[in-house]
Amino acid sequence: MQNIDSYVEKNKDRFINELIELLKIPSVSADSAFKKDVLRTADEVKKSLEKAGCDHVEICETEGYPIVYGEKIIDKNLPTVLVYGHYDVQPADPIELWTSPPFEPVIKKTDLHPEGAIYARGACDDKGQMYMHVKAMEFMTSTNQLPCNVKFMIEGEEEVGSVNLAKFVKVNQEKLKNDVILISDTGMISKETPSITTGLRGLSYVEVEVTGPNRDLHSGLYGGAVANPINVLTKMIAALHDENNHITIPGFYDKVENLSDEERAQMAKAPFSLEDYKKALDIDDVYGEKGYTTNERNSIRPTLDVNGIWGGYIGEGAKTVIASKAFAKISMRLVPHQDWEEITELFKKHFESLAPKGVKVLVKPHHGGQGYVTPIDSIGYQAASKAYEETFGKTPIPQRSGGSIPIVSLFEQELKSKTILMGFGLDSDAIHSPNEHFGIWNYLKGISTIPLFYKYFTEMSK
Ligand code: BES
Ligand code: MN
Ligand code: MN
């Protein structure tokens, strides 16, 4: 494509400033206190798609936050790329751990990002990555180089489970019809080693509640004589893994796909330094399922983690009390073929069976989704690979990620098309954590790589 580099070079300050404006709006979907901001973000995304040259842009209302839809159809006989992204962000807390306020974006230089990185909630996940597509579109339309049809579908509820998007996709199959789905909401290995995400894990998220006595009790008067829900809950949680860190839920591994030795050997070729990994996290050793490497543990193997646990007295000083209730939020990351609803049922049955007499247990399923794997011999993957070769000077490595974008498997089921995950983030970008950031180098690289995907996908589809 002509002039992509010079276009990016000439416009980069504007690209950065526009993203900064978008990042200033706290579009936290999980917290209703931010409702107005989430809605305002949808309006801004709509405007940006119009400016980028979409012919038809609309705000599609749902029972929750709206979906921004835009399209430019240049020729019904040409292929259609559907771009998906999300404009909502994770909550910013714990806010005190941010070195600058989460919704007042600033550019800071780091060792990994000597060109600077934008620090703000959503910088990488996913406003920054979503906006690369808007700017890539702007480049293609303004230089008359858009080679195919484009549809954009940017949602506002990804971080809370995409429940309304799932309904929207099911009833809008014709509108969303496409030849390939393109998403930038994942990462890559490093700036030197580009990679394309070929897999995502599924998810089952549950909340558990253990109830003991009907009220909080004096821990001296009653201690030792009744079940303490917090003691019991922690014991039940501990029983969910065995000494090899295998998950103990009966049937949990039944459908897990076992990779061949060859596939595992292939995976092991990706550059990875255990020493650097430990150093970056300040841990003296890694921890996980016996028999698997770190990269396997966080991609091709299922896991179970407590995400939050509470109960009893956590205020200043000490209070002697046996709480009536204890709670935990638990996520299970799943691999392809494990069905999240089935796993949720297995968890519920097993967790209830772990409860001793003297407590009541309630398991509340939250949300979930299936895992995903995509082949590397598809036109979409090959086109993406060629695009990276051109901008990175290297063939990207296919890599399965540990994260989840549950809607991707639903796209395949309902729209019958493959998704290509062109992520430009780094694991160190601190998504979902304090001090989330996105490298300016990565942002601009994304903008210059994306149009090449369109070009090669159109050429290779002929
Ligand atoms: N963009 C992430 C998922 C992701 C990040 C995948 C990096 C691969 C690499 C997405 O916004 C996300 O956070 N997903 C949630 C699940 C969702 C149902 C809340 C997740 O993975 O925890
Ligand atoms: Mn995301
Ligand atoms: Mn996220």
Automatic annotation (TrEMBL):
> Does Nucleotide-binding count among this protein's keywords?
no
Keyword annotations for this protein, in alphabetical order, are: Hydrolase, Metal-binding, Protease
NCBIfam families (UniProt xref): PRK07907.1, PRK08201.1, PRK09104.1
Q: Where is the Peptidase M20 dimerisation domain?
A: 199-358
InterPro entries cross-referenced by the UniProt entry: Cyt/Met_Dipeptidase, Peptidase_M20, Peptidase_M20_dimer
Gene3D superfamilies in the cross-refs: 3.30.70.360, Zn peptidases
- Which superkingdom, per the lineage? Bacteria
Keyword Ubl conjugation part of the UniProt annotation: no
Tell me the Pfam families matching this sequence.
Answer: M20_dimer (PF07687), Peptidase_M20 (PF01546)
- The protein, known as: Dipeptidase
Its source organism is Gelidibacter pelagius
